[in-house]
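JOB MANIFEST
job_type = single_chain_structure
chain_count = 1
residues = 302
[input]
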Amino acid sequence: MNPVERQVVVSGLALAVAGSVMFSAKAIVVKLAYRHGVDAETLLALRMLMSVPFFAAALWWTSRGAAPLSRRDHALLLVIGVLGYYLASYFDFLGLQYISAALERLILYLNPTLVLLLSLLVLRRPVTRFDLLALLLSYGGILLVFWHDVRLEADGVALGAALVFASAACYAVYLVLSGELVRKVGAIRLTAYAMCVATVGVCLQFALLRPLASLAQPAPVLWLSLINAVLCTVLPVFATMMAVARIGAGSVALAGMVGPVSTIALGYVFLGEPVSGSQLAGTALVLAGVFVLSRKAGAASK
């Protein structure tokens, strides 16, 4: 590997790790905002309104000179925007009212296994020993961390875990549906389009459920929402895309395994969430399951 190639790989890994840590910090920021009495609908609306100008600009930029989208493409983009960034975000914000940031991040990290299950059920792909091992490791780890949260605070943990799991399921469906379209539209254009669609859905929901005056929140909530929009949404999206361009999706997925670990550390520092042996063991199992799937995908691509 020559110096130029090494620099590309190092920068790609740095972008992938930074994107994963910033994504993971979202749960910490949301839980800090909840301490000020804001509700999930208002908090989500603030996040989307503050982030959508960046995605609208990205959509305009990537659409210049690009091939026009068909009516079917637009319909599919609307569906994946609602699933992947509106419903997934809403269920996630609701679930964070009841469970720890660490458990939330681990449940969301089940996305690869949910995509696997969808492929098995919908696309009728065969099950391999690697698949079964990954599923056993990942869901065994979730049970360990879930049990840790239940013992500390039983009220609402099951509901919160179910809501975040619904978020992960919505995002997994989004990934499956966007697999073919992303090659035609492009990753950044697809993500920007989906985020703009999600913003419309979030604003409509907010208009139906809350008065406009609810957006006038205390300064800490507004600052946390800005951090959530820029540092935990916009920057990690583009950092991850740039990392994929440099080192490939498989390497980015492996580098992203730092996410759940960083969430545990950030939760301990900023939220005072306890760290136990069962929580660390569960995290290790989930990461091992994702590692098995990523290695299998890497071998298949070769």
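[summary]
The radius of gyration is 19 Å.
DSSP finds twelve helices and no strands in the chain.
exit_status = 0
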